[in-house]
Amino acid sequence: MKKVAIIGGGKVGKTLGRLLRKAGYKILGVVNRSIESAKKAVTFIGDGKPFRQNKIAVGDADIVLLTTPDDVIKKTCDGISKGKGFRRGAIVLHCCGSTSSYELLESARKSGAYIASLHPLRSFADPSTAIKNFKGTFCVYEGDKKATPIVKKIIRDIGGVSLQSKADRKALYHSGAVFGSNYVVALFHIGVSLFEATGISHKDATASLLYLLEGTIGNIKKVGVTKALTGPIERGDISNIERHLETLDIHNSQLAKIYSLLGSIAVDIAIKKGSITNRKGVKLKKLLKKFAK
Hints:
single chain, DUF2520 domain-containing protein, Rossmann fold, NAD(P)-bd_dom_sf, alpha/beta, 58% helix, 2 domains, eight-stranded mixed beta sheet
């Protein structure tokens, strides 16, 4: 039975801790900012002891999860390493999506541990919900050759699907996740606000655009990203696009700029799809560029 220590008993730490416990791993200890919050994390996980000191919690752990806020991972790791807290041959993991294990956990590796990172592509707003829906979650990992087979097994054991990322490209991967999730929310917010500007209620704007978005996601699943593109750019409807840009520029010039920048990408997709010619694409990009500044 693999023994695990969790440094950082917040939403991610609690979720992974409970998933690991259910998968048969032994949770040795959980560290949090206060002993009270550590106790709550232990209660949620269903195993382990609460601690305030990292070195004591790490103890004889085979696997150490650093699930602290991203900006203190390196400092936390360096502190444990300085106190000779990591067992030689232990696996030390962090869960930051944008930074590699080599950038944040180098001190652990110098202490004789093997390092890696594991980033689940899932929201952890509510740990109970995250646990319930975790099966099938894609988990991106990278790290030492001796660490990655164990990380892949951890991912499999907790019900995830493993994806390996190049260590020096993690920021690109994480940026892609932001575009594919967080910025979808931002764009949806823009769509709702524009509907509201025409007199449509927030409730109706949300419901109608959600219906449209669900259809788009369904199309992506069915035919892929390129073939799923529809709308005025996909049709090469220059007059409609020009009207959109002029109206948005009056309403909110920032939105005209966003429309232009995303529109240029949509033009490339439309050309790839074959719905517009290269010549029409050049005309569209020329129009879009006028409003992109």
